Records
---
Amino acid sequence: MTSETTFSGGRWRGSWIWTERTAHRPDTSRHRHTLDPDYYDRRVLLRRTFRLDAVPERAPYRITADSRYILTVNGIELGRGPIRHGYRQLHYDVGDAAGALRPGENVIAIRARFFGRRNAWWVPAPTTAELGGGSVVAEFQPGDEWILTDDSWRALESGAWTPSLPASVVSAQIAEVFDAGKLDPHWDRPGFDDSGWAPARILGDDHFGGAVTTQPPSEPYGALLPSPLPPPAVTVVSATSVATAPTRPEIGTPAPDGIDVGDRVGAALAASGLPTPDPATVPPPGTTATLPVTVESPAAVLVDYGKVVAGHVRLGFSATGPVVVAGAFGEVADPGQLATVATFRLTARAGENAFTREDPAGGRYLVLYLRGQGSVRFETVEVLERLRPRPEGAAFAASDPALTAIYATGLRTVDLNAQDAYLDCPSREQRAWTGDSVVHQSVDLVANPDWTLARWNPELLDQPRSDGLLPMIGVGDFGMPDQISIPDWSLHWIRAVHNLYRYTGGRELVARLMPSAERTLRWFLPFRDTDGLLTDVTGWVLIDWAPVPVAGRSASLNALWGRGLRDFAEMADWLGDAGRAAWARAEHARLVTAYDAFWDDGRGAYREQIRGGERSSVVTEHAAAAAVCGELVPAERLERVKAMLLDRDHTFSEATFLSGDEPERVRRDGEAWVVAAQPFYRYVVHDALAQLGAADRIAELCRDWSVLVESGPTAWREVWEGGSYAHGWCSTPSRDLVVYTVGISPGEPGYDVVRVAPALGDLAWAEATVPSPHGPIRVRAEAGGRIEVDSPVPVDVVSADGTVTRHDARQVRTSY
């Protein structure tokens, strides 16, 4: 018997349960319900005891909650979830509890949480009479009898946590304020007396036009869906150093809800005199802090993990008296910046304490402020990383060690941002941005044998608005209908669907996503002016964190739309949908003619903007690259466009969110400069250069990432000039060194044939192993033209002059 056969769908056996109080606000209408704005960030404890004569070989379970759960059996954590989900969706997790069971008394314990107010990774579902305001459902089979969520469970809304809200719109982390004295640490273990707790309340989905149901499927979630993701890979990261220093006894009076924790911690750090560490400095490999460390309060503690990490801060310590431990976990340990990072405030009990911050976060430094009486002896100051799996089996190396390191750093950056979705950064926001993730996905497809998240993320983001455009994030506050969107981010999502077509060959998956791709492309049609160009497109047209003017007619946006039309037509043909392919090609053909208006023959480049009938003087890499990828450039212009993209002496970079104003060089002499792409948009630039026959320059261009190594060597910063310290959208070299330098890509959808076209540039050699649906493919190329390929599928070797030679699936030794 397996979890899959035991839980075969249909109606659940378990019922929805919670405490007597949910987040619903009483309303005079039976069928109209709203949430109480004052009921937010609440935690509910649920327990169920049972006895076993013997431990079974298997004890399958499934569980979910609105909004979050942590499941333990006999005090052993088995899982937490669910993954982020759509407005009317909810996923459940399955597992096996047998390893945590024992003969005699056992206890299943669930710590559930209801956010109440939307945040960066969760939005409230519509409410019915009793659902949508906090709920849990679970089923366990630890033997012949089922244990189901019902009113035999005991329930308590815990007062150990003080409800908190995100620090700000952009800094989305929620402070955790926890009083250990208000929660018995053994509440989730056998022997705990829960007689003072109330029975759990069974919840129903009473709504207009339907019979009340207390078991899934039910409104507002519909049929519960199995999680499409495997369990996360869990890694414990230890500190490389722990520094302590006394500080002032009181740094002001803390607010009760934790909103000022970062300010207090920052003030304590400043008063302690501990030096601000340099994030560009990396400890020697194998360095670990000497623990335990005893600290007398009041004091500041500065913990360095030696690299950017992402996960749950975990502390283990003993306290000799009433001590409050306030913490701020972030990318830098600058006192002035700790107000915007992940924080917590823990009121410790005398004696042993164990604390794990519930929400994951990212950073390198943990700053603690101890106040109160007595001392604290820290045994552990860890971070528990819970990231998407990345098994061994993919690799890249080259004769230039710097490029090998750049590949590895990019892959690590994607790791940090690959959780239950591809995130923008694990620290500041944790939002699943619709456009950013095309880079994360591209890297996973060449560097991770587990493609689960690469397949799932485009589906997660497939939450179109009523007008057809995708929101700017997949799930969360910025994805709600009352928010504007980023139109070009939907076009990058179409490129992610195109990646699925090329790499996975999954017809059913791609076909499922094509309707949203079509609606996205059609969303732009009403903005097309009489000359055939998209004009005055509404929303936040971002393009890149670079000074790209977008008002009026934007060359970059028009070109990205052209690439989307081309990608859509190709996929429609592959799926046998000739009608939709013909529609997209007709729209594309009209754009090819219209796009000529951006061309300045004297400048030998496409101008970025036409506004009020006038062409601006601004030239960008963005427009040129997207025009090439969108097949909008006539053949006679290709060499001039390539020359402009390869001319690195006349480009400049300046991130708009750091500078704010139009760069002086654009105002002073736009004719002489080209606006350079920031790291995110370089994936389009590199695609264009490869299409122009300049793949041999990609390795050289990837060395531009050396400037990011200098400021943050363990993960990529957001833009060339700075920003956050772990942005996955900067990781395109980890794709391009494999795809363009070693030259490995699908020759046919699903890697039924592999295409190998090495373009080493100035490298003596480069080699890579990539995953495919048929098994790993290994290629080593040398500057003299020698190539070795181990492939489970036929190989098309492409020589420098474009000649293609087909080889059978086997070990290939030849020249290129």
Note: The longest strand covers residues 299-319.
---
Amino acid sequence: MRTSKNHLFWIFILGFIVCTPPIDLHGQQGGVSVDNIKNLNVDELTDAQIEGFVNKVEESGYTEQQLMVLARARGMSEAQISKLRSRITQLQSSEEKLQGKRDGNRLRESPLNDSGMDEKEISTLDPFSIIFPKDTISKEELKVFGMSFFENKMTKFESSLNVPTPKNYILGPGDEIIIDIWGAFEYSYSLTISPDGFIKIEDVGPVQLAGLSIEDATVKINKRLRSIYSSLGENAFSEISLGQLRTINVNVVGEVKTPGTYTTTSFATPFNILYEAGGPSEIGSLRQIEVYRFGKLAQTIDAYNLLIHGKTVSFHLMDEDVVLVRPYLYRASIDGEVKRPGIYELKDEESLDDLIQYAGGFSGLAYSERISLRRNTGNFRSVITANRDKFDDLKIKDGDFVEVKRISNLYTSRVTIEGAVFQSGEYQLDSLLTLAQLIEKAGGLRGDAFESRVIILRKEKDYSLSNLSIDLTKDGGENLFLRNEDYIKVQSIYDIREEYYVQIEGEVQKPGKYPFVLGQTVEDLILLAGGFKESAAKSFVEVARRSNSEQLDQTAEIVSFGINSNLELDSDDSKYKLQPFDLVAIRKSPYFEDQLVMEISGEVLYPGKYVISRKDERISDIISRAGGLTGYAYEAGARLVRRTEYYQDDLGEEEATSKVKRQELEAIFKRDTIETLASQTFKKEETIGIDLVKIIEDPGSEFDLILKNGDLLSVPRELQTVRIRGEVLYPSNVRYSKKFGFKDFISQAGGFTEETAKSRVYVLYPNGTAERTKSFLWFKDYPAVTPGSEIILPKKQERRRLSPGEVIGLSSGLATLSLVVLRVIDYGTN
């Protein structure tokens, strides 16, 4: 992401328009659908997706104006374009900050900083260093091929003992020889070669085996066995094999990570012992691993034969062998579009073709016709370019760097058609392909095609865009020859007009918007909406139609239809045809009411849930329906719990008016209070203080409230305690006594604390009402306490002492104010 912010934005748009394959309107495709770019939701895109599209189209050559034309031709909305611009600007800003940090680190890490020059002197020393980036290969990006083979400690690379003994295996002291004889007679020997190189066979004597191959040793042993087993080979047979292998010591030296002497089995190969030593060091060679035996070179191993070609090493080590790893001679790096980028070691006379083969060959996106490599030549660097037929002639030198470029994103024989055709997408540009032939290849025009104007966006040789349009009703396109990268858009008649719909609201099962269908009646729409609810008014249906009147004060035309007792339209009205954007309203019957339920609990004869029978039913009525109060009822403690406007039903739905009011209050809390919004709660239910004694004495009075849906009336049993909470020494429940005054109850809880705000003490009564303390001068009138009450004692507010500076400022302000007042008085007297 190294381009300007504006250009970067339009490059992203091009990613959707050019690089994403188009699909059929009815088809599905993974990723982003080009046909549905008008429905693109920018909020669902990740930063990685945006950057990926940018990388794909940076080489396109389109200008911002051209990209704007293509984006709008695809139907992308202005709102989404604005969102994209904002997202990409944020990405660009983040990238610039990160790049600036990298550049700063690069400057701080420069060897020139050790010379004592400042940044200005360093930047003017070599102007090309500002234009061209530092030409080095990051070790984190490219690694030396083959080194990881020896670094993987999870891999077991040990000599196998469960294999047949190789015929060329050389025997030595410590090897166990097993001789099995069967046939006319059976016998078995298990003998170990002595330090002198002999085995001793009973009745045969010593046999010299050290230094012989297992094949030669077998011939020699059978020859000696025939001296005691004359029929050996006729009706008796023998088999000689190795048992326990001897151990050997091998010296590993040179450019290895852990040189030293290692003990292993006689079956070990140079790779086994090299793995034990941790593999070659950073400068160690993988292609020149030498084994010395008795001071002479016995074998040279090339690890690439195993790592690349899969050829195993059959050479086995012997005691006191020396494995020497020399420094590498040539290493070259290859990156880009190859299957295995990395740093490879090469031998004399190996070429660019060999390096490519070591890297696994080209990837499917590689531009392989011509490759350039960078080479160190003396005190400078040079670039060498080779055509594909010369890869084998270009010999690789130490330090060469090869980067295989990716093929261009441009096309040479592509045309694209989209819109109201049966098979939209990309097609091969044949010679002299006409628009009519392309439409035929795309399955032909759909019935909804807008044939009067088909748009062709054409990319000229200088990458400018030109626009062509053709009327297919007059010219079928037989004479319009297409060019490479032509984009043909066949609009649907539904794309160039407002989406048609009809709407139904009110007392139907499924209210909402429905697609407009030609010839649709009001009854058809009601049927689509699931039919009437039982609450539908049995009087009329209202249809509101957009007004086409030239009168400015008329906004809609209203048509009403009658409904019979079966909730069906009259015969004539049922044939009324709807038009686009009609709104059908089904009114609610004024005589229909859902059952309203309240609950009464506690000391009544028949507690439980009751349906409210009238809109004006009161507390006294429901108590009467519940059989009246029991003899244990505490009337003064009765309370009514009522749902607030913030109550939500079982589905979590909240009334629209309640939602608006809550949002308004939240805004007020945020603006006008010092408390955090999180501390504000919107209760779903609240207690209403009632006086049940007066309600029973005077039914229908102002104290006798009208009940609502969800009300809970609680009539408690006689209460005998008082709860004391807050700033007392021992908050608790205390026994109620008529003889106790307010301070007597406080004494029962240990008395006031030093932090008690006595003037703010209040009593919460069992019926939900509350009364606070009243003060006059130094006298305090505490509220009365009844059974079941709660005495709440708040804490004093902390007062912050003024700092010396605040005291001085306040004093200065008062002095200034006094001076102003005196001058005003003096002015008035004069």
Note: Residues 78-108 form the longest helix (31 residues).
---
Amino acid sequence: MTLQSGSRLGPYEIVAPLGVGGMGEVFRGRDSRLGREVAIKILPEGVSSNPDRLRRFEQEAHSASALNHPNIITIYDIGSVDSRSYIAMEFVDGKTFREILHTGGIVARKAVQIAAQLAEGLAKAHEGIVHRDLKPENIMVTKDGYVKILDFGLAKLFQPAGDQVSALPTSAQTDAGLVLGTVGYMSPEQASGTDIDFRSDHFSFGAILYEMTTGKRAFQKTTAVETMAAIIREDPETLAAAGLHVPPPVKWIIERCLEKNAADRYASTKDLARDLQSIRDHFSEIVSSSDTAAAVPAPSIGKRRKLRRLFDVTAIALILALASALIYYVLRPSKTVVGTALGYYRMTYRRGPIGSARFTPDGQTIVYSASFSGGGRELYQTRPDRAESRSLGIENAEIASISRTGEMLILMPGDKRILSQVPLTGGLPRELAEQIYGADWSPDASTMAISRWANDLSYLEFPPGKILYESAKRIDPIRVSAAGNAVAFVEHGAGASNGVVVVIDNNGKKITQSKELYPVGISWGPQDKEVWFTTIANEPGGGHELYGLDLSGAARLIQRFPGGTKLLDVASDGRALIGFTDVRTILMFHAQDQEERELSWLDNTEVVDFSPDGKKILMWERGEGSESPSGTIFLRGVDGSPAVRLAGGAPESFSPDGKWVLAGVGAQKIILVPTGAGNARSFEYPEYSDVFTIAAMPDGKNVLAMGLKNKAETVLLMQNIDGGKPGFIATKGLRATPFSAISRDGEFLLMQNSEGKSFSFALATQAVTPIPELEPDEIPFQWTGDGSNVLVLNRFVLPSKVFKVNISTGERQLFREVRPPDLTGVTSIRSILFFRDETSFAYSYQRQLSTLYLVENLR
């Protein structure tokens, strides 16, 4: 019996009826305890004794009450009064989709806005519940424009086993106790009574989105039986045939959701929601370029289904292979063929650096990290058949590996180098370990290989805890073979750019090793026959080269590329992901009361030191324009006069009188180069490895360098410029900072431990004093004149703020802000130096503008 207005049901006052459905009557009510309006759903008295009806009614309450999302109706209470079971829920002041659709189709922008909210709510529900009756009557839009999903009365918690529909509806309404779905919006699997999961809701979602954009139903025949047959066998009228111009990405989403085979719909509702969010956030750009996008259409539902059926016909395998190849090439957004050998397929179009990229298990989807348009680093996903990329919502991360089960390993750059795991389908990253440089899943996804830094050593572990290899040098990246029986990695030199490619087996036995090169990307080639890697060409302007290193140790040149090139991943069929990057390091000079002046010379100009009079800058060119991998030494006046080449090498500092420059060449040699007339002097250290220079000492008679003794112990070398054997100073496990700063009196050196903490190191006594109150990733780069303070900055936060920090008290004050003129593509401050007067300074920043390509036919 229907409740009357003014009557009470427990703590609720009945205000007015709202509607009647298969699951009961709905009333508008008022909670007298909290003074809020509610909607009350009541199970009809005539069937309240039916155990199945009561079970389903209670299931609705329990299922929906477990959800907490702004796009899902909130359940407040469940109870029973006088044999009447009820649910009290949030009262939504608005209209159902059905009421809105009665006015006809919705404009595309509004449809996308509504659909994005609906998908977000559905994604939350799909963490444990399938709605099973998604239709316009069960969706409302409030007066404020918020979407609310109603009526989880047909929802069912996920079960490991199949969940079959035992009865089908015979009308457009949901018959209580009989139906699990509504004709016109149910999925083919619902209509045919087969197993369903969350992808069934995707089909219903697609039918609703179709109706929103066209103003008519996707499937509507004369009878319910005919409608169900159409759902199982027929495609809806195409949007083009309906005379509508719908943005291609929206059309593709509708078509994907309305696929007959659930496996061809979205693998995750979060992916569906992210695609719609991306379209919503870039709608104006999409509409303005829709004509261009339409030139590369996704195949229709019917065409895709026909092609899949062809794959089952083995008698025409050859024809199918040719057809598949044709479709593959047609779907590519842009293609450039070099000669007849290589095919390049552009995957990214926005400006900024790309860090890492991996194929997903399907071999087509690609996940990569990038920082676009001066923004922060994010993970993105794209495919060869789409021009756009969408953000995965994971910031400040590099993709390290993706398992065959769709689990990602991501690395958070910074002083802790945190390794986390997160599903490809979305979710919060779960932290696994710190101080990790590289990681890769095993082929069966049961474990992983990691490289970590601890106790001044790098360790390669596979699985974690089983040490296969250790080194005093950084190990990164690492890649496990497809067979899982070997691990390839780069063992870097002290200069970080140089290194060797190493392959070991599962017992730590070295299988092979490359010669000393400059590897910048590594992956196993097809069939585990070779390890592929890119390296800087060992000649001026030589660009980068791709090599294959076989297990016997032989290396062959696969391809030579102009400019910056990094191998990121290789698929099992030999397709490669390669990042092509225009990398420039730009040097800026700032003098008080003057505009900053660019003093870059070639393509990679780093400031190293000021001459004693402040009129010249010592510069290191280390890019394509340099004469060797060690770089080239230049001098240039701060007035912008042309640069003067001094020698090949990596410079470190002027002598106190400015007459010569200290520099390093290779891994075991340092040189003193005159700035005027004269001959260079050199010192070699065959008993040490990875020697690099630090500073010319203030006395003008000695120079300081650092190297490895017995390939493991870090020591400082004090070399008299007149010759003789160097003295060495034990460093107590510390190493020089990236800026290798020494105090003006030559008594203290800035150093770091393996955890990245900074210290003042006394050269005479080896006393170590921590530098207090530094923020994560802050690095001290220079001493002030009196030696009581150091200048520090975080090189990776832009614009960068330089602070003056007292080494005794930790007191800090803002000293200067460093702001490159254009932040697009800027990744870091590479080097920075203040002149003695602390008003003039120079800094170099790195800018990377990358494009990700899929490259075919590499052999």
Note: The radius of gyration is 33 Å.
